[in-house]
Automatic annotation (TrEMBL):
<protein>
    <recommendedName>
        <fullName>Trans-aconitate 2-methyltransferase</fullName>
        <ecNumber>2.1.1.144</ecNumber>
    </recommendedName>
</protein>
<keyword id="KW-0489">Methyltransferase</keyword>
<dbReference type="Pfam" id="PF13489">
    <property type="entry name" value="Methyltransf_23"/>
</dbReference>
<comment type="similarity">
    <text>Belongs to the methyltransferase superfamily. Tam family.</text>
</comment>
<keyword id="KW-0808">Transferase</keyword>
<dbReference type="InterPro" id="IPR023506">
    <property type="entry name" value="Trans-aconitate_MeTrfase"/>
</dbReference>
<keyword id="KW-0963">Cytoplasm</keyword>
<dbReference type="GO" id="GO:0032259">
    <property type="term" value="P:methylation"/>
</dbReference>
<keyword id="KW-0949">S-adenosyl-L-methionine</keyword>
<comment type="function">
    <text>Catalyzes the S-adenosylmethionine monomethyl esterification of trans-aconitate.</text>
</comment>
<dbReference type="GO" id="GO:0030798">
    <property type="term" value="F:trans-aconitate 2-methyltransferase activity"/>
</dbReference>
């Protein structure tokens, strides 16, 4: 799992936009009375509460690799723990697993998924959502800037090979013996404010860059990146900016 530091407040700055895929994912999980529900990569815990509200009789297990996110979740009275998804093994009573915008950070997740499916009890649900926009201008422009002499060697960022497409996840999970529902959605987000796309990716894609640079160098990097993002995502006459937000979903049910 990535050791990138996280800023829960910055991440939650676009909470409405970021949370919508979670609700769309959860809508396809048909569990009625699960014994245990796992929030794998719970972040600041704001969506863990949704799981608890939907299944009030279930034991809720939440964890994240980020100490900052775990602290934020605990501040919401979520009993979250700090752990790496690569070390996770489902308890025998785990009937639902939800992992939202996490597995793109785990290069090994395509090997881990079949193991997790095999370890879950019969009739369990595993629901995942990952970004499908890692090759979009918002991310490609960051990698292009990092390749320039001034920033070369700062850090490596993921590209589209970090995740599969819906058919890829469908094949992987079906081959593991599960029934699968896989799809993708592109949300056209309406962003506002100064350099809104830069602000958006500052809470996610730019975290490794921020960790690798001094505050002054990071400010310089953002200043060089901002006009490139403005050109790729122009401001409309009303002051808003359209930001396509492609997401990939898969829901598997074990045999």
């Amino acid at each position: 799992m990535s050791t990138t530091s996280w800023d829960p407040a910055l991440y939650l700055g676009f909470d409405d936009h970021r949370s919508r895929p979670f609700h769309d994912l959860l809508a396809r999980v048909g569990a009625v009375a699960p014994r245990r529900v796992v929030d794998m990569g719970c972040g600041p815990g704001h969506l863990t509460a949704v799981l608890a509200a939907r299944w009030p009789g279930a034991a809720i297990s939440a964890f994240d690799s980020s100490a900052e996110m775990v602290d934020a979740a605990r501040a919401r009275d979520i009993d979250a723990g700090q752990a790496d998804v690569r070390d996770w093994t489902p308890a025998p009573d785990t009937d639902v697993v939800v992992t939202n915008a996490v597995l793109q950070w785990v290069p090994e997740h395509m090997d881990l998924l079949p193991r997790w499916i095999a370890a879950l009890p019969s009739g369990a649900w595993f629901a995942l959502q990952v970004p499908g926009n890692l090759d979009a201008p918002s991310h490609a422009l960051v990698r292009e800037l990092l390749a320039e002499p001034r920033w070369h060697g700062t850090t490596d960022l993921r590209d589209g090979t970090a995740v599969l497409d819906p058919a890829g996840y469908a094949d992987l999970l079906s081959d593991a013996g599960a029934q699968v529902d896989a799809w993708e959605t592109t949300y056209l987000q309406r962003l506002t404010g100064e350099d809104p796309v830069l602000q958006w990716i500052s809470g996610t894609a730019l975290r490794p860059v921020r960790d690798a640079l001094s505050p002054a160098d990071y400010a310089e990097f953002r200043a060089e990146l901002a006009p490139r993002l403005r050109a790729a995502y122009p401001v409309r006459p009303d002051g808003s900016t359209w930001f396509p937000f492609r997401r990939i979903f898969a829901v598997a049910r074990t045999a």
